[in-house]
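Job type: complex structure
Entries:
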Amino acid sequence: MSQKPRTLFEKIWDSHLVKPPTADTPAVLYIDLHLIHEVTSPQAFTWLRERNLKVRRPERTVATMDHSIPTTPRGADGKFKIIDSQAAAQIKQLETNCADFGIELHALGSEGQGIVHVIGPELGLTQPGMTVVCGDSHTSTHGAFGGLAFGIGTSEVSHVLATQCLLQSKAKTFAITVNGSLRPGVTAKDIILAVIARIGIGGGTGYVLEYRGPAIEALSMEERMTVCNMSIEAGARAGLIAPDQKTFDYLAHRPRAPQGAAWDKAVAAWKELKTDEGATFDREEIFDASTLEPMITYGTNPGMGMAVTDSVPQPTNATLTKALQYMGLTAGKPLAGQPIDVVFIGSCTNSRISDLRAAASIMKGRKVASTVRAMIVPGSMRVKKEAEAEGLDKIFLAAGAEWREPGCSMCIAMNGDQLSPGQYAVSTSNRNFEGRQGAGGRTFLASPLTAAASAITGKVTDVRQLLG
Amino acid sequence: MEPIRTFSSPTIVLPIENIDTDQIIPARFLKVTSKAGLGKNLFSDWRYDAQGQPKPDFVLNKPEAAGVKVLVAGDNFGCGSSREHAPWALYDFGLRAVISTSIADIFRNNSLKNGLLPILVEPAVHARLLAQPGMQVTVSLEEQLLTLADGTKVKFSIDPFARYCLLNGIDELAFLLSQEAAIATFEAAR
């Protein structure tokens, strides 16, 4: 019997339906992998204890610490110093919860610790066709492997812990097709900033995005993660990319990937994970990578983005007027040349080894401007170790940048890494909301290349001016 | 959770689009292990100055905000971070409904689990609500009706299961736990 052609999202949805929706109840969807961290999980464990519930499948939940932990160098005793007593209590609570409920924890200082969306793929936990959830909106990152991955709230964290399932309504599908190929100096980050600038920060609400087309296929796995990571900044809970040989090569021999005969069987199944010929999407937008420029945001949400060569647009509504006022920018003036105070290279969007290599390629043999504080925050302990083995840390330190311990750091500014009021930062993170990087701080989102170039010149800079 | 049926309240209005959850509750207030007391930090960076003093011009600091249950906000309310602390803070402040033309997916899901009704209205109704801060409105979850001060009745839609849970003051976890047999069957078949 021939089946109706399905999109990749529909295939994953169908294969995880414990119970289809009825007129009165949403679908019951099975969750393969649940990632947790210290900030959005404590209350969920409290509710489990109150109801005397166990974690149904503890082997399907993996924990780490990333949001509120320090990224300052360790003390002489090799230990991290947590000054904030609230953060310390939260970290302790996660340790207790994992010990009490039998959950694997990559604790502060351990070799597997890192930003939750960096370590999932790194360990090989994230695999094609899986449903992946975490109490964090950037869970969409894991969709780069061809799974359905989305952020959930703390109530839903308790649902997954107790039942390994979630109640869900089926999303609509939205194809983001990117043709052509990127020009030098233009990166995956610029693709996703351009996508959000066009469809708007609410444009993906209610949809799962599927990124496809030659320019997407040409991206490495780490670049695909950057793209999928920011799906939520267009309002889409999830974004995904069909797995291919690059996906399989990335996963092969990762500690938690299938091994031996199980690997061959898994790859055979993963090869089926693509949108069928003739399947229809509810919406599609088409982009041409060859016309894209390095992108930068000028406003207070990730949809307020433009080419770094453009001028700040004239405000057409009250929201944009308010944004430009907060940012202290003048409409009609170019953003390039705007002096900056801080450069932040890190976050679940851009803290992987290829991101650090890109930044180092610009900083090598150059000096960070004397007016700029540049922070390089690797995404995980493994990324940090790999970068140090390649000597990237030496390049950053020689340039006058800070080389930090892994964590979310100044992306969310919960751990003391933050902007001062009024400061301008070029950041490789994902959100430029008011106060996101510190109360009163002003953020320009950009790629690691653009951020590194801006660190060197002390101003918002088109990286192509520094390329050889 | 307390059941929700019908309530009346004047509105407070925040006529700003794309209010993200970082504005609703900034990240530095997420270092908590319970959900109690977040209302005092609701909209903290808009509500207090650098010295922590209330800004008199901000709507939540005005006398008319006391006891208000309904917030009317600009398009795409609750975008950004998945933090459930956002609906917790709104609820703790006393709010029981947020009205907008669109509401972000994760925020909407989180709100429905915490007794905060996300209500979507058409632009024309929204414009009237934005133009008249303090308008007395009535929300009936049973009838799925929003009644404006002049008696205009506006039907709103809500996920039927979430409505059932809210009307009866039960949570979704109890339902999921009752699905144990189906979950076990699904796992065994894989």
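Summary: The longest strand of chain B covers residues 6-14. DSSP finds eight helices and seven strands in chain B.
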